[in-house]
Amino acid sequence: MKSNHSAASSDEDEYTDHDQINNIVDTSGSTAEPLSIRLPDGSESVSEAILSHRQMLTNPGEYDLASAETVADMRETIARLTEDVPPGLRSDLKTLESSVEEVISQLEQQQQQIEELRQATTSLAEILGASVEFSTDLSATDDVTNATSSSESKSRANMDIDSDADTDSNHTRELDANR
């Protein structure tokens, strides 16, 4: 019995994979600059980079990123100190307030970068066939790290199985991360 489906060549599969990846990260229709992610120091693979970014997002204080609680505390402290300022120091207070506004602006940029990192991490995890959950609860950090290690081991095992199957059938796929 003849089949109506023809077998796709490995070249066609490769182009299809590249097209799918490009569609996931296509920014040609947006006015924003595309997000580029360098692998953190010590990371040799995308999965290690995902783990590093996840740790950075769950513990922003350890990586010189301010948390929302820090910003709220700063605002409360400034409001309290403003009430106690003698009239002669009001100009200094205005200077400090502008400095705080700059810090707040930087914090908002960091929040945007964190969101972009989350989106990029999620996208990279999807490409690797993994799932990602984010938590900012410091007590959950150990749980996230343990779950990540377990998930990463499973992903690596699945990738090994997939690569063995690909090798057996003489179909190799390459992912060009520079595209």
Task: Provide structural commentary.
With 179 residues, the protein is mainly α. The chain has one domain. The protein contains 5 helices and no strands. It has helices at 10-24, 46-58, 68-83, 90-128, 141-168. The radius of gyration is 24 Å and the shape is elongated. The model is unreliable at 1-11, 13-18 and 139-179 (pLDDT under 50).
What is shown here, in short?
Residues 168-179 have a biased composition (Basic and acidic residues). 62% of the residues lie in helices and 0% in strands. With 179 residues, it is mostly helical.
**What is the domain total for the residues?**
1
Q: List low-confidence stretches.
A: 1-11, 13-18, 139-179
Roughly how much helix do the residues carry, as a percent range? Answer: 55-70%
The main β sheet shows up as: none
SS-based class: mainly alpha
Q: Counting H and I runs of at least 4 residues, what is the number of helices?
A: 5
Shape call: elongated
- Order of helix and strand elements from N to C terminus: HHHHH
- Beta-strand residue fraction: under 5%
What is Rg? 24 Å
Number of strands: 0
N- to C-terminal distance: 42 Å
Highlighted features:
disordered C terminus; mainly alpha; 62% helix; 179 residues; disordered N terminus; elongated
SSE blueprint and pairings:
Elements: H1 10-24, H2 46-58, H3 68-83, H4 90-128, H5 141-168
Helix pairs in contact: 2-4, 2-5, 3-4
